[in-house]
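Quick illustration, no need to memorize.
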Amino acid sequence: MYFLGIDGGGTKTTCLVCDEKLNEVCRVVGSSINYYSEGLPKARQNMKDMLLEIEKLTGISHFDGVCVGSSALFSRADEKQLHDFCDGVFSSDNIIMDSDLFIALKASEKKNVLVAIAGTGSMVAGFNENREVVTKGGFGYILGDEGSGYRIALDGIREGVRSLDNTGEKSLLGEYLLEFSNVKTKEELVDAFYSPEKDRKAIAAFASFVSKAAENGDKVALSILYNQAEFLYSTVSALIKEMPEKPHIALFGGVFQHCEIFTAYFKNLVKDSCSGCERLAKEPVYGAVVAAKESVYDN
């Protein structure tokens, strides 16, 4: 028996194929399947391309169970959502599609857990007293994404411009912004960002420069990281109020993986509100495989 777990994040998709004992058989990484940002036809094609790659590597084209964790969803997909994305794409009699936070919760393997994801976007989820998945945040880069790489980067870019233009506090972010954009003057930044316009993923990449500036003691960069950590803490706090007891908090995403200052500050903020806080030991795509297997045995 073979099970397929899919972690469809905002900028990339990870596919994991495992056998019945959950041993890894194959792993493929491809483009986003978020049909809000990519459009449904493109999202479906991206998924088909990854399935073809899996078949090429393993010879496997049919799966006993499939679980799609998608950043486009807040909860379990209804019949229409499942039909629109999956029909004609997967060969399986057992397919479920849920949020990317659902698969992160499955990967935690803890009963009372809250998962906080801070990658290109951000969102948190946990179980209420009825074991129903409850979420906070996740409204995307226009409406929210507090504590995300995108928000950190965008704040850093704007403060970098203000530093270069002498309209804000002097900061290393100005120098780093020119380096990031591969230009020499502030005037060239307009073309660098608008011709063509940079996408979310490209902008979010500047978060590493904000982290670097903070590590070098830059007060503006430190303030950005602290502010975004506090925003994310507010989102987590709102969810904790709906949980039956103090949860264990599992952290996942590029910001938590690569920005130690942000992570340490966030952990300090939540220390009195949880039973423990650490990075998610197993990646969310593993939780998708677990859910795919459960979908077979639950039927």
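The beta strands are 2-8, 12-19, 24-31, 65-70, 95-99, 113-118, 122-127, 133-137, 248-252, 276-279.
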